[in-house]
Write a structure and sequence with these properties.
heterodimer; A: alpha/beta; Rossmann fold; 8 helices; 8 strands; globular; B: alpha+beta; hypothetical protein PF0899 fold; three-stranded mixed β-sheet; 2 helices
Chain lengths: 222, 122
């Protein structure tokens, strides 16, 4: 006999459950989690490297490096004396909550204030996967063009912070700060925008200060 | 890009539910996919063709996808409007920018149909 079963189950139900577990762990350990996303080559790892110099002074920080392959990025972070866990997805285009949960087992969470997760370079898939984070940061470089905000609305709609990187290259691109501001207003008016040249370090301190402020606001001064 | 993974999740969720409801073979699955998810119906259908080779499905099993338009609701003036083709979230009536998305983010299995396990419990 044929039967029909009504489900209503989200396809990402298991990811959401896992993300909930991460949120629970983080709250228990007073740990603030940032999910950092961008297209490949926008400068995520460089921004992290430059940010750690400032962050280290205020917050005990660790990094999860998501990459399809290699441990190069984790090596770059470790060189700054910060604990880094490399996650290789072996081809998968995003990190999911299960992978992050497993990586968390390798860290002493009670001794950390901040966890920065560098997602796979991709403006599409990572947007769908909740990692139990407190903050979603999207990095966009001037060389990619200001139109990316409108082209990838899911990514930019769900973020709270936008860092525009490679500001030093602005004169060589068609990137328009005015157009960007207009598009951001139409996609996500609450999105906070910072401008950096991560390679030279310009602007990095500003976003770090804001981040430290957010962590303090949530958990107080430790 | 991640439609294969989404399909793998769908198959696992269906397998679990089918066990629970003693469904032996699934003939039809109905999926609701919002336009503002990054899941592409064509890619989902292609992925389903790969997964339906499994015993859980009958050889003629079909995946039906119902797409949902992205619908915005203006928090300023209450206007409800479709947000088409990645247009910005700007209220067409009052140009307000505080827009809630009331539809378009859906991504769930609505239902499935299948053959019930034959029971010999007389």
């Amino acid at each position: 006999m044929t039967i029909k079963v009504d489900l209503g189950t989200p396809l990402l139900a298991r990811n959401e459950e896992m993300a909930e577990e991460i949120r629970y762990l983080a709250a228990e350990n007073r740990l603030f989690i940032v999910n950092i996303m961008s297209s490949p080559g926008a400068g995520k790892t460089t921004l992290l490297e430059k940010s750690l110099a400032y962050l280290k002074k205020d917050l005990r920080t660790a990094v999860i490096e998501g990459d399809i392959a290699t441990t190069r990025d984790a090596d770059r972070i470790s060189a700054h004396g910060v604990e880094a866990v490399q996650l290789n997805t072996d081809g998968a285009c995003h990190l999911d909550a299960r992978m992050v949960y497993r990586a968390l087992q390798k860290l002493d969470l009670a001794r950390l204030d901040l966890l920065l997760i560098e997602n796979i370079g991709n403006l599409v898939c990572p947007a769908e996967f909740n990692l139990g984070e407190d903050l979603r940061l999207v990095l966009l470089s001037t060389t990619e063009g200001n139109d990316k905000v409108v082209k990838y609305p899911v990514m930019f709609r769900d973020a709270q912070m936008l860092v525009i990187n490679k500001l030093d290259l602005l004169p060589y691109t068609d990137f328009s700060r005015e157009e960007l501001a207009k598009d951001v207003a139409g996609i996500n008016p609450a999105l906070e925008i910072f401008y950096t040249s991560a390679r030279g370090g310009q602007g990095v301190e500003d976003w770090v200060k804001r981040l430290v402020g957010l962590v303090r606001a949530k958990y107080g001064v430790s | 890009m991640h439609e294969m993974g989404l399909m793998a999740e769908m198959v696992d969720l269906l397998a679990e539910s089918a066990r629970e409801h003693q469904v032996r073979r699934i003939d039809k699955v109905k999926l609701i996919v919002g336009k503002m998810t990054n899941a592409l119906p064509d890619a989902l259908l292609m992925a389903f063709d790969v997964y339906k080779e499994q015993e859980l499905f009958s050889p003629s099993a079909v995946l039906e996808i119902e797409e949902k338009e992205t619908i915005g609701h203006c928090a300023e003036c209450g206007t409800t409007f479709p947000v088409r083709d990645n247009a910005l979230f700007i209220c067409p009536s009052c140009q307000g920018l505080r827009i809630d998305i009331t539809s378009g983010r859906e991504l769930y299995i609505e239902n499935y149909e299948g053959e019930e396990e034959t029971r010999y419990d007389n």
